Every structure is written in C-alpha cells, then in structure tokens.
Amino acid sequence: MFVFECKTEFLGHQIVARNSSGFAFSFQGVTGENRLYIDGEVVDTNTEMLALASTPIMRGRIIDDEKKTHVIEVYARSGWTRVKLRIHIDGKKVAGEDF
C-alpha cells in the first residue's frame, strides 16, 4: 500500500488530503482511495483511479467566526508510480505540488 499526503493549516484547522493505493487480490487489480480530513474528520472521499487535475476530486468547507464559508478543494494528478496532490482554499493553491 502506498500513501501520499498533502497537509496545511487554515484558521487553526488542520487539513489533510490523503491518497492510498496499492495492489489487491480482486478483479480490479489496483485499488485506491482518496480522503479529505478537516480536524481529523473525514469530510469527503473519492475512489476514482484516474485523476487529470482539471477538476477537484474532493471538496470540504470551513466556516469562520464571522460565518463566512471557505471552500476547500483537492486536486490530483495520477501517474504510473504515484499521485500528486494539491489543496486550494477559496480558489487559491495553499499546499501541495505544482502540476
């Protein structure tokens, strides 16, 4: 099992995007799962095996003290040996790799 993570902090909240993938004894051969955590709680998941980076694979939100909603989006690009991840908040990249 291979695990790739991208982490950031925003307004005191911990945000983690995690990709787990590997070979399984099933008809699929290769399995994978993506999870978005905010403060340790899973807020979105995705099991797509192909990511092209043009659209978010997961979304979440944080509501600040002034009741403003901040949108968290996770983008991914899959490759032969690993997955690249990046986190955007309110449309701006805050963590992860360039792709």
Shape: globular
Count of runs of 4 or more consecutive helical residues: 0
The N- and C-terminal alpha carbons lie at a distance of 24 Å
The mean pLDDT is 88
Number of domains: 1
Spatial sequence of strands, sheet with the most strands = 1-2-3-4
Structural class: mainly beta
Strand content: over 45%
Helicity, in percent?
under 10%
Order of helices and strands: EEEEEEEE
Strand runs, count? 8
Poorly predicted sequence stretches spanning 5 or more consecutive residues: none
Sheet of most strands: 4 strands, antiparallel
What's the Cα radius of gyration? 14 Å
Please describe what this structure looks like.
The structure is a single chain. This protein has 99 residues and is mainly β. It has one domain (2-96). It contains no helices and eight strands. The strands form two sheets. It has a four-stranded antiparallel beta sheet with strand order 1-2-3-4, with no helix packed on it. The model has no long low-confidence stretch (mean pLDDT 88).
Which tags fit this structure?
single chain; 99 residues; mainly beta; four-stranded antiparallel beta sheet; 0% helix; globular
Q: How do the helices and strands line up, and which of them pair or pack?
A:
Layout: E1 2-10, E2 13-23, E3 30-38, E4 41-46, E5 58-63, E6 69-78, E7 83-89, E8 92-96
Antiparallel strand pairs: 1-2, 2-3, 3-4, 5-6, 6-7, 7-8
Summarize the structure.
This protein is mostly beta strands and 99 residues long. The chain has strands at 2-10, 13-23, 30-38, 41-46, 58-63, 69-78, 83-89, 92-96. The strands form two sheets. A four-stranded antiparallel sheet has the order 1-2-3-4, with no helix packed on it. The chain has a four-stranded antiparallel sheet with strand order 5-6-7-8, with no helix packed on it.
